[in-house]
Amino acid sequence: MQYPVETALQASVLTASGPGAVAVIRLEGHLPLQENPFRPFVRPDEVTPQTAQINRLLYGRWHGEDLVIVRIATHCWEIQCHGGSVAVQRILQDLQATGARVVPGTGNSQSISRAQDLSPEQQADELIRRALQLCRTREAAERILQQADGRQVRLLQQRAAGNTDALEQSQRWLSFTNSLLRGFRVLLTGEPNAGKSSLLNALCGRQRAIVSDVPGTTRDLLDAETTMGGWIIRFVDSAGVRDDATSDIETEGIRRSLTATGAVDLICCIAELKLIPDLLLQTLATARCPVLLVQNKADLLTSDSDFTFLQPLVHPFAERVQVSAATGAGLEELKSCMLRLLLPALPPSEMALPLADFEAMCLTQRCT
Ligand SMILES: Nc1nc2c(ncn2[C@@H]2O[C@H](COP(=O)(O)OP(=O)(O)OP(=O)(O)O)[C@@H](O)[C@H]2O)c(=O)[nH]1
Ligand SMILES: [Mg+2]
User: Fold this and answer.
1) What's 285's domain CATH number?
2) Is 183 left (phi over 0), alpha (psi -120 to 50) or beta?
3) Cβ–ligand 1 contact at 300 (below 6 Å)
4) Which residue has the CA at smallest separation from atom 7 of ligand 1?
5) Average pLDDT over residues 156-183
6) Measured in whole angstroms, how far is the alpha carbon of residue 292 from the centre of its chain?
7) Ligand 1 pocket check: which of 187, 188, 196, 198 to mutate, most ligand atoms within 8 Å of Cβ?
8) What's the whole-model pTM score?
9) Measured distance CA(324)–CA(322) in Å, rounded
């Protein structure tokens, strides 16, 4: 590969964004004169990545982590490190600090080198292969496999041709693609003792959280993953919220519960027959995701009129469901309601999903 002298150093991650054994970071372009991007790399002998023979494996340590650097061309190196995102991010940050620009990885049309060498068909295959590696349900894998019928190739061609209509159409489904490959997060919040932990256990089908009749049992955020209708759902249980906390620990638990409302795709507000605490209502009023009102302990209701205090359904609640975590009544309706709110629209069956944009988004998230 030849690089014009003015080609600045660029770093890109070549491996998929999910957890993996090994990650590969490619560094290419001209090394800056003043800074040595390989400074954190320590080896027992004098050979450096800058002077190494092409294709020679250089074993060493980067801030104490074992890794391998291969000089694959005069101005191109591959750093093969542990596949966890922390190791990758650390190396990218070090490279950035010496002036390297981090760009999206291979398979992305913005990639600076290999993507140029690949045909749209090869790029599409590569994107689909990496997306498949992230799929954890059969349904997700089926949706990704549908992309291999030529639509992904057409999207890459349209991207290259700057067809804005096609790009906008497919961009519209970026968050759908993200949810398909990474799942949804759903917060269970509400007053103490409303049955949040019982619902978490019932929805996940195992005794993940401690349940007791003592209000304030859950003190911290606790999550559990399950699948619903082919979608990965990570439920987050939380400390009960009330307006008059009596200890520093409870106050901190409530703060964490309220903060978590900003980091999920759906909030389930679990209520018993009492009023929802003002503190929680105020937070829910500004939520950026849908809020579902779940009235638990339906088995204790003596008449329909017990539910009337929640009438009519007002902001911030999008919908409400009545359930019993104890008997399982209403759980199926609750699941359908959650999926309805999480997926208000589905892409048309022939739509090309923005897999390249998804990868670019993941890379940006890892680097910020
Ligand atoms: N009858 C009835 N009891 C329930 C139901 N769900 C939970 N409970 C009971 O309500 C009590 C509180 O349940 P938890 O699940 O611990 O409630 P929580 O909201 O997690 O409580 P904190 O962690 O203290 O905020 C326990 O005694 C549960 O057995 C239900 O659907 N019906
Ligand atoms: Mg609890």
Assistant:
1) 3.40.50.300
2) left
3) yes
4) 195
5) 90
6) 22
7) 198
8) 0.73
9) 7
